[in-house]
Amino acid sequence: MRQVAIIGIGQTKIDEHWNKSIRDLAVEAVRAALKDAGRESADGLFAGNMMSGILDLQNNLAPLVADFAGLKGIESVKVDAACGSGGAALRAGLMAVASGELESALVLGVEKMTDRHPHEVTAALATAADADFEVEMGVSFVGLNALLMRRYMHEYGWKHADFAPFAINAHANAVHNPFARLHHKITVEDFENSAMIATPINLLDASPIGDGAAALYIVPAEALRGGTRILVAGSAAATDTIAVHDRADALFLSAAYKSAQAAYQQAGVGPQDIDVFELHDAFTIMSALSLEACGFAERGQGIRLGLEGDILPGGRIPVTTRGGLKARGHPVGATGVYQIVEVVQQLRGECGSTQVPEARIGMAQNIGGSGATIVTHILKREP
């Protein structure tokens, strides 16, 4: 298998784009990635998306995007892995290019969520849960994460306020990201006084939805001569039960652990070597669980990394350096690609006030459902 490099990135601002359709957002991101890569076309397009068929009444999305982006005739396919669709789309593109089947590929993540009533969006998101034994019982993803958070607090003795640093850090970083949805800082007092959604999760524990698209352009690394290269050094995916109640240990993200371990092995690194980690902070509890599953903290101690400042841009393991899902926004099928775009920006040294000093190795982890599908990628800057 050939090593693969990312030579182009593009993204749209995450917002309520009333005047743009899902095709408009997708084409905008694709064209930005093509421009950044200095290319006019690609051999394939892999589009990560979860809900276009439900919310936009548009299936067969990838050929539509290829057509309107001026890429008519190329291989194009939609990849669906719930909220992990973006990461899964990159996996698909990587395998096509690494195997030699394609010499270049565009990887897209796109979601259009704000044109529909919130109840419709909530119902569409719930399709990533177990339809018979979770959705049928009336539980939502907020409810599932609230149950996990309450159990975590009970098991390890943490208070709700102890989760505040994850949200505060995300908001502080998003201020410096022009593509982020939320551009305001928050305090511990803001966090504690925020409106309750599903006890103990309040509004500032949760990420906002939005409309957005992000794209990557990938090629075989051997095709590049000289200069700095951003290589995909590790790529792995794993699954767990869809229903949380079917897991042997609800507080351990086994798919995060398995995919991270496989990616570490491929890249020849360990947790101690990662300079920046774009984790899937759909809820603050997921930040703690992800840090623990990936080896950055002991079980029950992920919270401590936030409390001690280790997650800040200058800390031991910087996370959500461009705002994360919490403040950049979470257009679900696009999120995994936004994460990779942001790691590339860090490795290129393009992040300004939230730049991680001398960042050379970055990791991104994209989660589908409540941990049912988890995709982990590790990128390296060379030389």
Task: Describe the secondary structure blueprint for this structure.
Elements: E1 4-11, H1 22-37, E2 44-48, H2 52-55, H3 61-68, E3 75-79, H4 85-98, E4 105-111, H5 118-125, H6 141-156, H7 164-174, H8 188-193, E5 196-198, E6 201-202, E7 212-220, E8 229-239, H9 254-267, E9 276-278, H10 284-293, H11 302-307, H12 324-328, H13 332-348, E10 361-368, E11 373-382
Parallel strand pairs: 2-3, 2-4, 9-10
Antiparallel strand pairs: 1-7, 1-8, 4-7, 5-6, 8-11, 10-11
Helix pairs in contact: 1-3, 4-13
Question: What does this molecule look like?
Answer:
- By secondary structure, the protein is α/β, with parallel strands linked by helices.
- The chain has a single domain (4-117, 208-382), classed as Peroxisomal Thiolase, Chain A, domain 1 (3-Layer(aba) Sandwich), CATH 3.40.47.10.
- 35% of the residues lie in helices and 19% in strands.
Task: Compute the separation of the termini in Å.
Answer: 21 Å
Biggest β-sheet, characterized?
9 strands, mixed
Strands across the major sheet, in which order?
3-2-4-7-1-8-11-10-9
The CATH superfamily is known as Thiolase/Chalcone synthase
CATH topology: Peroxisomal Thiolase, Chain A, domain 1
Domain count: the total is 1
The proportion of residues forming helix, as a percent range, comes to: 25-40%
- Estimate the global geometry from the Cα principal axes: globular
Counted by DSSP, the helix tally is 13
Whole-angstrom Rg: 19 Å
Q: What low-confidence regions span 5 or more consecutive residues with pLDDT below 50?
A: none
* CATH domain class: Alpha Beta
DSSP, total strands: 11
State the secondary-structure class.
alpha/beta
| Beta strand % | 15-25%
Order of helices and strands: EHEHHEHEHHHHEEEEHEHHHHEE
